[in-house]
Each structure stands twice: as C-alpha cells, then as structure tokens.
Write a structure and sequence with these properties.
With 391 residues, the chain is mostly beta strands. It is 7% helix and 50% strand. The longest helix is centred in the N-terminal third of the chain and has 9 residues.
Length: 391
C-alpha cells in the first residue's frame, strides 16, 4: 500500500513551497515465503547400497530421519517507509522501519550416531524470533548539468537492527551446556529474551604481571585465578550498531568513475586468531605457521605487562573477554572507471557504441581487529577489464 502525497491537492502547494517535489508513504505486510527447507524433511527415507550385498540381496541404509510433526517456518514481515525528493530534485531520501517475526523457527539438531541415519541431523520447530530495525538510503547530486553531460553525486545507505528469541524454554539447553567435551567452544547462548548476536564469555581482568596467569572476574565482581562457566555474562554483541555503504559517482561526457566504500560501526567479535594461534597452540601445531604475537606479546618474566599469558604455560586457555574486541571497519569495496567513445567514432568503426570499463574489488580494508585471512578465507582482490561493442 502506498500514498503519493505530492499529488494531493490539500498539501501539494505546501510541499512545493518546501522544495519537496515527491513524497510517498508506504506500508506493507506479508509472508515472503521460505525456500531454504524441503518438505522431504518430514519423511524418513532410505537409500539402496548398490555396492553392498548380503545373503538376502541388496542392502539399504537410513538416509534421513524424518519429523512428521514438523511445521513450516512462517515469517510475517511488516514494513513502514517513505520516499522523498527535495532541493530541486537534488536530494532523494528513502527510509524503512521493519518488524519481522518468525514463528515457529525451524532449526537442525545433531543426532547421535546410534540413530543410524547417514544424515545425522533432524529438523525441529522451536520458539520465535523477532527482528526489528531501520534501513535508509540517501542520494545527493553535487553537480547536475544535463546539457554538458556532467553530473556528480554522493550516496549512502545505513542499516541498524536487533534480533531476539522467545518461547525457547529449555529446548536448547544442550547448546547452553557449560561443559561440552571438557569446554564450551562457542560464545552463543540461547535463552528467552536474549539476542542471537550476544557474546557470552567470562570477564577477564587481564594477565597478572607477577605470575603470567589470567585473572577472571566473577559475577559478583571478585577477582580469581579460577575459571568457571557459571561466571559467564554478555560482554558484547556481534551485530554492528550501524552498517552500510557510502559511494560516489562522477560522469563527464564519455568518462565515468564510481566508487563504493563499506563501513561498519559498533559491534564486537571474538578474535579466534588470538585464541587459537597465540595461546591455544598444541605441541603438534608448533611446526605450522602461528601468529607472531605468540612469540613477542606473551608474558615471559615477572613484571611484564603483557596481553597474553605465560609463554611457558601450555594449559588450554578458556574463552574470556580478553579475546573479544570491537569490530569497526572501513573498506573500498569496488571501484569502476569507464569511458564511452563518441558516437561519431563508433559509427566510423561500424558500431553503435564502444565502451571500456575497468573494475577493481576489495582494494583495501581498515579494521580495529586483526584477524588472519589466509588460504581458507583470502581477500578477493580482483582487477578486470571489459570492452562493450554495440552494433
């Protein structure tokens, strides 16, 4: 549903006096559907083993354990927004507030090997997820001369929002277990009213300069050398406070340039590189590349004010707030430079148009958190050229 206010007689003249040439109010509600799950998840299926026979003939094995009581994941998306153009059509603003509920949620649960299924996961319904936030876009023309084929604009987008769970009860208690194979290697916990992006760890007061041991903070504020999962609290949220893209485009006759910068402000991240390649280094892993901070930034002698524990201490390090860092970033996501040759030159070459474009992606990245990006997750820097010919 939309309402074009700029066409209404009772307000049309007032909008023009304010320099507003376009104003639309929008509202919508609906179910966007879900194509991430198959209806076959409700059916227990078997697979023929063509390479395995016994006395009775060809064998079969359970491929998937079905859940006949499964319900479709239903999402209701509500949205209220506006579109406005003002300042002699130089500035365009778009804003949207969204409120989305998913009930029931659909998740996969790991099954024990004793279930006999080749796919050891089963789909189950649980709880409700509520997401809400705001998205916005703005475009402003600094220069716009149509006759001279000259224009330059700047643009930006932003997004902010929160997500919370409810109606879970104790269905995910195994995911919140304090002890899983001796230690919980996840910072996520699932409770009613909690955000799915919260980071749960025990607070740390840093490394004791006298002993090189980590000092933990209990829930009551006391300091201790003894780690306990019962002292876990929320120390941050992985969702940024605001994120988006800032860009600019310039065009003059046949030359055009466009650049897009991605930004992220607020939010925290658990630095797994520090956790796995600075402190939790096994003896067998010493032959592989490690983070240089494991050698230079660990405690070595009494009096050292170090960020990391005693270099001689090989005891496994538990997750603590010492590895949670603010995650702000700024990157040049894409850059394009193009040129369109004059129509006269194109016609002499027997073409309708001739265009050249150069593209560069992921050119640089500035961030407050230092993490490894190697062979498994490399920077996808790329440069490409394109020639476009139209007959």
């Amino acid at each position: 549903m939309a309402w074009n206010l700029h066409n209404e007689k009772f307000i049309k003249d007032n909008l023009k006096s304010l320099g507003i040439t376009y104003l639309k109010l929008r509202a919508s509600i609906g179910n966007p559907g879900n194509q991430n799950f198959s209806s076959s998840a409700t059916i227990t299926t078997f697979r023929y083993n063509f390479n395995s026979f016994n006395y009775f003939g060809m064998t079969t094995s359970m491929a998937q354990l079905g859940n006949p009581n499964l319900e479709w994941q239903t999402t209701i998306d509500r949205n209220i927004g506006f579109d406005i153009t003002l300042l002699n059509d130089r500035l365009k603003l778009v804003g949207d507030y969204y409120y989305k509920t998913t009930d029931p949620l659909l998740i996969t649960i790991d099954m024990p090997a004793s279930s006999g299924a080749t796919n050891n996961q089963i789909y189950k319904n649980f709880g409700k997820q509520t997401s809400q936030g705001f998205t916005g876009q703005a475009t402003y023309y600094l220069i716009r001369q149509i006759k001279n084929r000259l224009w330059w604009n700047v643009r930006g987008t932003l997004r902010t929002g929160t997500t919370k769970l409810s109606g879970i009860g104790n269905k995910l208690e195994s995911f919140n277990s304090k002890e899983r194979e001796g230690e919980n290697r996840s910072t996520k916990r699932y409770y009613d009213g909690a955000s799915t992006d919260d980071i749960w760890v025990v607070r740390s007061a840093g490394i004791d300069p006298a002993t090189g041991r980590e000092i933990f903070i209990k829930k009551n504020g006391e300091l201790t050398y003894d780690f306990s999962y019962d002292d876990e609290v929320i120390v941050g949220n992985s969702r940024p406070t605001v994120e988006g893209v800032l860009g600019t485009s310039f065009s003059w006759k046949g030359l055009s340039v466009s650049a897009d910068f991605r930004y992220r402000i607020g939010g925290y991240s658990f630095n797994s590189v520090l956790f796995n390649k600075v402190e939790n280094i096994s003896t067998s892993s010493l032959i592989y590349n490690q983070d240089k901070r494991a050698l230079y930034d660990r405690w070595q002698k009494p009096g050292d004010h170090a960020q990391f524990k005693d270099i001689a201490n090989s005891v496994s390090t538990p997750m603590s707030s010492r590895f949670v860092q603010r995650d702000n970033s700024w990157s040049l996501e894409s850059l394009r430079i193009g040129y369109e040759f004059s129509p006269e030159l194109a016609r002499r070459c027997g073409m309708g148009s001739i265009r050249l474009n150069a593209y560069m992606n992921d050119i640089f990245r500035l961030t407050t958190i230092k993490q490894e990006r190697g062979t498994s997750y490399p920077y996808a820097r790329s440069v490409s050229f394109a020639l476009s010919l139209t007959l």
